[in-house]
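queue> holo job accepted (magnesium ion)
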Amino acid sequence: MERLRALVRKEWEELFKIKMVIYGSVFLPLLMGGFAGFMVWTARDVPPEAQATLLNTALMYFLILPVMIPSTLAVYSIVGEKEQGTLEPLLATPLSDWELFLGKAVVAVVPALALTWALFGVFLAAVQVMLGQIPSTVLTLPWLLSMFLLAPLLSLFAVLVSMLVSSRTSDPRAAYQFSGLAVVPTLIPLIVYSARFTAVNLFFVVGEGGGLILLNAVLLYIAVRVFQREQVLTRWK
Amino acid sequence: MIRTEKLTRTFGSRIAVEGLTLEAQEGEILGLLGPNGAGKTTTVRMLACLLAPSSGEAWVGGHSVLREPQRVRRLVGILTESPGFYKRLTVERNLRFFAELYGVKEPGPAVQRTLERLGLWDRRKEPVATLSKGLRQRLAIARALVHDPKILFLDEPTAGLDPESARSVRDFIGELASDRRTILLCTHNLAEAEELCKRIAVLRTRLVALDTPAALKSRLFGTRVAVDLAQPRPDLLASLHLPFVGEVSLDGHTLTVAVDDPERDNPKLVRRLVELGAEIRYVQRLERTLEEVYLELMGGSDGAP
Ligand SMILES: Nc1ncnc2c1ncn2[C@@H]1O[C@H](COP(=O)(O)OP(=O)(O)O)[C@@H](O)[C@H]1O
Ligand SMILES: [Mg+2]
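queue> job finished
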C-alpha cells in the first residue's frame, strides 16, 4: 500500500512536468465543458422535449472525457518508463507486479474521473443558473448510471487499452494514436445519441455497461499477464 | 550469502546461462568476468528475481529466489546495466522514490546520508537530466545503496564512463567492501576485476573458472622464470632435458622457462644451466597478466560464441 502510494505520487509529479500531458488534461475538459455549456445556453428558450434532447447531447461530452484524458496519462506513464530506462530498477524493488499495474492504472483513471465529475458539477450549476432549475430529465437513473457507472468503466477501458498498446511501442505519439483508435467503439453512444436515434435510456446504458464490463475483464486478464516482471523486462519494446 | 546451484536460463533455443554453480561468502567481492553475451546480466537478473531461472536454484541471503522473491528483492541493492532515472525529477526526488519503494523507514535522512556519501548532496535540487554520465552512475550507486542492503549486485559499474569517473566509481566500490557487504561485480574489464575482486568467476554461458586472480594466473600457466644470460645461447633450448621444465623460449639474452614449482625447481634449473656453461646475470619470476589468462580461458572453452 505504501509502495503503491509512493508510485502514484511519483507518477503525478512526473506527469505534471510534461507539457503535452498538462495541455491534454486542461484543453479537453475546457473544450467539452464549453460544448456542454453551449448546449445549456441553447436550451434556454425551447420547449421541454427539445430541451431534453439538447441536454442529452451534453451528457455525451461527459462520456468522452473519461476516455480521452486517461489515454494521454497512461501512455506517457508507460512510455516514459521505457524511454528513460527506469523499468528495470523499478522492477528490482519490492514493488509487486500487481502494484505496478494498479499504480499505473490509478494514475490515469483517478484524475480523469475527478475532472469529469468536477466538470459535471459545474455543468449542473450552469443548468441551474441558466435554466432556473435542473430539468427532471437530467437527474434520471440513466443519466446517473452514465456518469457513475459508464464513465468509470469507459476510463478503465481506455486505460487498459492504452497500457497494453504502450507496452508494445516506445513512441508516445504512435501509442497515443493507436489507443485513440481502439477507443472509438466506446464513442458509439455519442453517435447514437447525437444522431437522435434514441434518447438516453436505461436499456442502452445498461447494455453498454455490460459490454464494457466484459471487455474490461478480458483486457484485465491480458494486462495482468503483460505486467509480469519477466514479460516487462523481456517483451516490452 | 549468494549461492547458485546449476542455475540455467534459456531464451527460446538460446542458452544464456548454463549450469552455473557458485558461492559468494559474506563480505566478499566476487567478480563475474566474461565477454559481452557471456550471461552476466542474465545471472544478475535471476539473482535479483527479475528473471526466473529455466532450471536450477539460487539463494540470496539465505532466501530462495524461486520461493521468496519478495524477501530477496528487499535484501539486495542492484546497479542495473543501463540505470535509468526520471529525468524531469530532481536527484533527491528520484532517490526518495526508490527509498520509499524499498520500504526505508525514514527516507529523508537515508536519502541525505546516501547523497552525501556519493558527493551528490549539493546537486540534490537539480533534475537528473542535467547530470553528466559519471554523476548519473554515482546516483545509480546511491540508488543501489539507499536501503543499506547487505548484498549488492553491480552490473558493469564503469562501462561507458570516462577514465576519471571510472576511477572514482572503482574507489568507491573498494570502500564498500570494507562495510562487510557482499558484492557481485559483473565486468568485462580485467583490470577492474583484478583490482576489486577477491575471487573471480570467469563466465562464458558456463562457468569456466572460479578462483582468486593470483591462483587463476598460476594455476593456468604454472610459473615462468626469466633467466638473463651474458650471451645468447640458442643451443640451450635443445639441451636442457629437465623433467619439471615445460615450455622454453629464448629471446635475445633472455631464456624463459616454465617450471612446475619454482622454489623446488629453480635451484636445479640454475645448476643445470651452469653445467651447460651458461653465464647467468639475473634470474627472475615472470607474472602472467590476467589478460593472458583470460584470453587463454576464453580460447580454450567451448561455450556459446
Ligand atoms: N531478453 C532476452 N531475450 C533473448 N535473449 C536474451 C535476452 N537477454 C539476454 N539474451 C541473450 O542471452 C545471452 C547473454 O546475455 P547477457 O546476460 O546480457 O550477457 P552479458 O551481460 O554477459 O553481456 C546473450 O546471447 C543474449 O543475446
Ligand atoms: Mg550485460
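queue> The pocket of adenosine-5'-diphosphate (ligand 1) is lined by residues A 234; B 11, 14, 16, 34, 36-42 (CB under 6 Å).
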